[in-house]
Write a structure and sequence with these properties.
Elements lengths: L1 H17 L1 E12 L3 H14 L3 E7 L18 E7 L1 H7 L12 E8 L2 E7 L1 H8 L1 H5 L3 H22 L6 E12 H5 L23 E5 L3 H13 L5 H5 L6 H4 L3 E7 L5 E7 L1 H12 L20 E8 L2 E6 L2 H9 L4 H6 L2 H15 L6
Antiparallel strand pairs: 1-5, 1-6, 2-3, 3-4, 4-5, 7-11, 8-9, 9-10, 10-11
Helix pairs in contact: 4-6, 8-14
Amino acid sequence: MIKKIIFIVVLLAFQVIASKHGIYLKTHELIKKDISKVTTSVVDLLKENSYEILFNGKLTTPDYVKKEKEELCGFKANLIVFSSEKYRDILTLFGNKYLIGGFLRVGIYENENGVNIIIIDPETIARIIFNDLYENDKEKEYNKIVTKMTEFKNNLITLLHTLNMGKKVTTVMEPIRDDDDLAESSKDMFMMVGPMTFFNDEEQFPEIYSSQKSISEVQTFFESNIKKFIPTDEDKEYRWSPNPEKDLHWKIISKTSSNDGKALLLGITRPRTEGVSFHIAGVSRENKTNRCPGIDHAAAYPIEILIIKDNGITKVYTQREMFRMDMYFWDAGMSAFMNHMSMPGILDESIKKALLGKDYSK
């Protein structure tokens, strides 16, 4: 009888744990190799298994936005953005708008214990971007996508675990939410963020531009505007950095299209935004041996811009930055969000100004 009770308790505990989903999932830790060699090994493995590498490069760490030398950690972080035809097929099974989740990402970062590897959890992302199905009485379709994406995630973890480096783990990392909260787009912060959904609340994933131009013409339009972008004074003054003339300029670092060519996803980022957000994500966890813990969110970027053809009109959407920060940085805590309440609005304006150029108006 006692054994039976213990078994039930253990089973219930497992079910509770199993229902938790992190935005980030760690696959390796305690790697004692140079971060550049680790990154090369991951890129080579992905290429060998038919993944398309969309970006491979360095990230800006919190050190970049710190004035005092004694506050520096010296740790590095790299980002790999990738995709595949199979992944896009799953994503767009119920429509091209779901290409918003089209960037698979690996973050590789150093801490006091060595090099670590994380991924953005494809299952968690799917549970968020497809929750309009769940909330619009299409629970069967929602569960079908979640099942497919869970299988895809498990296969990706298995593949990464073939890398014989450090300690292999499957660690769900903050921010963590449960099944119901993800499916029902629950609010993390009352009144501040709103429902965690892309498609059941148009304010969270607003249309920022429309045109009769083709998708490729809109892309060219954006690329031209980004080259001429001049940040606002508010953008410049938000946080100290050593080179605001350079580190506030947005750059498109990744692109992927739906397999039918009727939707395009662009990924943009910039140095200061990376450095500041990683600093905010880790400041409450800093200690003398690790002054940059926030780089364990290294896979948070790039910011997604969706360009999609809809009834002959090319429309452009991007997340409201408060919503996106809630997705990827909620674990920074309420005080961090309160202390940096102006940051999301500044980013919203900056992104639109960079993309739309002279066509932008507040």
